[in-house]
Each structure stands twice: as structure tokens, then as C-alpha cells.
Amino acid sequence: MSIISRSAVAKGDGTFIISEVTIADPEPDEVLVRMKAAGLCHTDYDSLSWGKPIVMGHEGAGIVEKVGIQVSSVKPGDQVILNWATPCLHCFQCQEGNQHICENNSPVVAGGNGHTPGQATLGSTQWEGKAIERSFNLGTLSEYTLVKESAVVKVNQPSLNFSAASIISCGVMTGFGSVVNAAKLKAGSSVVVLGCGGVGLNVINACQISGASRIIAIDINPIKLDMAKQFGATDVVLADKNDTGLIKASEKVKEMLGGRGADYAFECTAMPALGAAPLAMIRNAGTAVQVSGIEEEITIDMRLFEWDKIYVNPLYGKCRPQIDFPILMQLYKNGQLKLDQMISREYALVDLQLALDDMLAGVNAKGVIVFP
For residues 155 and 216, what is the distance between their CA atoms, to the nearest angstrom? Predict the structure, then answer.
């Protein structure tokens, strides 16, 4: 029996509407989730202009409402975190251990933010009488959402803070995984983090958890640098927005580190003009990580690679949802992963425009939409 769900629908022309969608019962391998919280990031704003209607949202946590007859990992009443990189477990990349870049199901790798086999049955969600896609196979900015079983990870924590759990879905996983899974940061290392928004703060927190001895945060916003200190930065550098490629900032970093660059640098600004900047921050044989997902052509002075430097561009922190999400929740339970501190404000779904405005203004570390 279908249900009616109030949802944020991006119209594809840069605007959205809070409207009703109709959601059918789960197919055999699908799960209907009653959403409790959905995190916001810039991708949600970008989805307004994808040229097609789409149920917004790709971070979230909730409670299982119904399951298909083949579903075995969860049951109605279970608490779950949603995961947008739904692995098929059979393709070449999944067999290689790279579930986050599944060749069949990934909305980034396989489908270009479109419909892939990783999304629940397309016709099962209807808006104005027509089938509508769900952002990144999830569509979490909705009272209910229908997803594949592979998109949910069960959480066994009494009195779960759903807002905290929701932001693990993307921003936290991306930042933490870039440090732990991609860079494999060694304890005692020196680190530079470029950009102290939501993802950058998670990188800083992950570096602290991993035992970095020096964490240098760089941003043009003093407020964000204050946040960086709260999440584990040992030093901060207020950058000049006119410092092309952050070369002057890199010189200051080298002064702070005895004349050589950092062991690791993480780019978290999503600004193409700073795509090469982490290379300027690291020592010879250091590692630079492009965390923010720049997908534009940029020019790089190859001398920045001298010598033996490594530059990697991981997707989603190389997420393995069934492995990584429980680790993150345990670190949160232990008080090491600062999820509560990350959430600056909670909003109702009807206040989504205000939440997006606050995000674009840089007011929040992280905003979360909560559902009754």
C-alpha cells in the first residue's frame, strides 16, 4: 500500500518546492525508511540545477518502516544510516575492495547523478503523477524514502542521536575516510588542512584521532579557524584571498615545520583555483589528498610535484559502508568523533531555504533537517 510523503523536490531550474510524493511498498530487495534526520551539504544546493526534478538529499538516518521479502539485514523498527555509494559486490571494483566506486550502482561513477541499478525502483516514487529520481539514490530530504537494502547500515545504539548519525552518510565519511582509508595517515605526522568547512573539520578531527602531531588549518574566515581549533587544529593560518595558489601560505607552513612542508595536506575547499595548493604544502615524498571533489580542468605547475610527491583523489573517503559506519559510530560513542559539535543548527523541512542560505553564508559547520 503506497504512502504520501512530504519531500523537498528540486525542480531542476535552481528552485525547489516542499511537496507531496507518493511512495509504493518495497520491492523484494528494497527498504522503506522513515527519515529522522538529514544532513545538508553543497551538493544538495547543486542538485537544484541538475535540469530535472529530483527528491533532494543524500545524507540521512532513520527507522526502517517496511522491508521487501528478500531483505535480511534489517527489519521494521531498526535504526539505520543511509549510504549513497551502494555496492553491487560483483563488479571489478567491488571485487577489488573499492565498493565506493562500484561500476554498476554508483550515482557518481556509473550514472552521473542519475538513475542506476543502485536506486530503488524508479516508478515507486511519484511526484505529480510521474516517476521521480532520488538524489544520489537516496532522497533523504523527505519524510520517507525507498532505497535498496545495500543503502542501509543498521545501528545498534540506544537513544540514538539521529542528527549525529545522519551526517556520517557523506560529509563525515568523506573527511574521515580521506585521512584513514586513502592517506593512511601515520601517527606523529604533520598535516595541513585547506578549508575548514564541514568536510575540513572532519579531516581535522580524523587527523587528531589518528595521532597527528601537528595539524595546521588554513582558511580565509577567522570564524572557521576558531572552529578548527575546537576540532583539533594545533595551529591556524589566516590566508589572504588574493594569495594565488596559497603560495604565501605554503611558505608560512614551511617556516612552521622547520623549512620543509608537511607530511600530508588535504584540500577541502572545492575551489578549482586551489586544486594544486596541497602540493605546495607538502615535503618531498609527502602526500596530498584532493578531498572536496574538484571536477574541472585546472593547470598545475609540475614543479610542485618535485620530488616524489603523491597526489590522490579519493571518492567518498573510499567508503566501505558496512565496515566504516560502525567504526565511526563507535568513535562517536567513545567521545573521539565530534559529531554533536559539528551540528551548528537543526531545521524543520519547511525551513530548508533558511538552512541552505545559512550553509551558503558559511554560518554553520553543519546544518541538519530533522523530522518528527
Answer: 34
